[in-house]
Amino acid sequence: MTLISLFKCQTILFFVGISIGPIIVNAQSTLSENLSLPHETSSSPLLISNGQTSQRPSSASIYLPREKTEENFSFSSSGQSQEMKGEKVSIRQLQDKALQNHPALKVANSQIDAERGVRRQNILRDNPILHYEAEEIGEDGKAGKQGVIIEKELGNRKRRELLAQQSDRTLEALDWNKQIVTRKIQNDVRALAYRTLIVQKKVDFQRQLVSISEAAENRAREALNSGSVEITKLNFIQLQNQTRQAKLSFEQNLNDKEALEKKLAIMIGAPNEPIGEISDDPAALCNSPMIDYEATLNNLLESSPEIAKKRAEINEKRAALAYEETPQRSFSVSGGALYDFSSRTTVAKAGIGVPIRINDRNEGNILRAKAEFTKAQSELEQIQLKLRANFTDVFSVYKSSKAEVQTYQGEILPDLERFFALSQQAYQQGRINFLEYTSARAIYIESSVNYLDSLERLSDSIVKIEGSLLEQCLEKQE
Prior knowledge:
By secondary structure, this protein is α+β, with helices and mostly antiparallel strands. It has one domain (3-466): Up-down Bundle (Outer membrane efflux proteins (OEP)), CATH 1.20.1600.10. The protein has helices at 3-16, 20-34, 69-72, 91-101, 103-122, 157-225, 233-267, 293-303, 305-325, 363-428, 434-466, and strands spanning 88-89, 129-135, 145-154, 277-278, 331-340, 345-353. A four-stranded antiparallel β-sheet has the order 2-3-5-6, with no helix packed on it. Strands 1-4 form a two-stranded parallel ribbon. The longest helix is centred in the middle third of the chain and has 69 residues, at 157-225.
């Protein structure tokens, strides 16, 4: 709540000019029965007091709030657009639907399937080679020796095992990547759903604020045209600017609301289908106990899917290095039979081949594997530092926004409810004029919007903390 709003409260209370004690009792009774924020202004003529007796409409003609204040913060379907109407749906149901349709999860599954194919291929032995051989063709006019030789490479069992281990570590990393994608989808849907509900409620409040501002501007114009001493040209210009600002804020939040609803529908893979009425309540997040910084950070560093994925990648690089450092102890054997057309006899043929590694000793691949292993270790440290820094930022937002929400719920809004009730009663009794009364209503609505801003920051921070700081599932995964 700003200092200007507090000053307005004090000014209006000064105009009330009545004893606070006995009025609060009556005001609280009226509040419990009627208090709500207005949805529209009364069409009845409400004249600005000019120090003389003014004709005021009866209580039935004056706009009186119709619902209890706590119902104004009920995240029901009252502010939801047509896309959000329909059967009630929980955030968990929206998350499950998103997991069924999201392409990022399909990509992650395809990567796992591809690596399984790589692993299967790596453990297969080399196929034998069938040679056709012919010798001494044309000698003495004969066909010479002709036959078939089979060649097979042996001795690569150890390297095949290391390749299989490397593929196993790659599959482990890809499994963690799938969990990361899953958590990102769930977190994004949850954050979008909370944000959508809160912005819908902001639009409701700001629609009321625009209505109040327009009513105050119209009454001020009437008073200015009638020559009333209660309003000056400067006051009227100020009211006009307040109305313009209220309309701009309303339009901005209305656009945000429409964009969030469409983005949420896209996120769950149903851009052309109604989402339904979200039944969750972001305000319930305030009831959770305060998160402990050190314990939560340590748990994040121990259980983060990003860290687990990078550790699996380190093991993969370690297996790759072991593979490159293992010398190729392979050799090839061959054997077959040739038919000698000169002597009309069959002769056998056998051979063995061993590679002589004089030039190529695989030094380049070993250096590359060592560099990639060192890089993966450094990336793990980088991820840990990034998580610490991001958690510190998010926790700072969480701590401040939780304190703000608790202050609004426990102090500011209840005080403003009493203040509004007093202003409403004072207006009905002729102790304050219409502009002062609408100013009280505007102060309450502005504070309510500020409360929703704090609630939005709190819900975002809680989703991030509980979701291991994973978000932005639509970005390309590594």
